[in-house]
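Worked example 3 (structure in, sequence out).
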């Protein structure tokens, strides 16, 4: 099982995807708890974040069932990924690489003149990329 979310700087959800989909509600609490951790880390970093294009926050916190990872762009868009704790094959650099792929795809969407920043993301290409990435971690 895995779950991927993107949030605006105001913690408004821009994109949510769960594999399998029936677990979406189950992840809701875990993800919102993790946003508090992300916000704490961002405020602790202060100006350091602005000086970088992105920041991989690493493992935000583990639960008995899941590991929650975070990533934030310099415009404070937050990416949260939740993976099954039983998946021990995933390395930190693989998670970081997945977040970079997500960030690059998100940047492509932002460059689309028909996308209004802050709107929910509805993109078949983005869905396909996220789905294939999440199948690797399930």
């Amino acid at each position: 099982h895995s779950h991927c979310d993107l949030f605006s700087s105001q913690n408004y959800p821009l994109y949510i995807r769960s594999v399998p989909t029936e677990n979406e509600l189950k992840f809701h609490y875990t993800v919102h708890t993790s946003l508090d951790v992300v916000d704490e880390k961002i405020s602790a970093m202060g100006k350091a974040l602005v000086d970088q294009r992105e920041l991989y926050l690493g493992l935000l916190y583990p639960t008995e069932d899941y590991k929650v990872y975070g990533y934030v762009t310099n415009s404070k868009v937050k990416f949260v990924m939740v993976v099954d704790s039983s998946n021990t094959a995933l390395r930190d650099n693989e998670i970081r690489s997945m977040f970079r792929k997500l960030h690059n795809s998100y940047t492509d969407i932002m460059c689309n003149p028909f996308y209004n920043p802050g709107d929910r993301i509805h993109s078949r290409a983005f869905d396909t990329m996220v789905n294939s990435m999440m199948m690797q971690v399930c």
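Notes: The radius of gyration is 14 Å. The chain has four helices and five strands.
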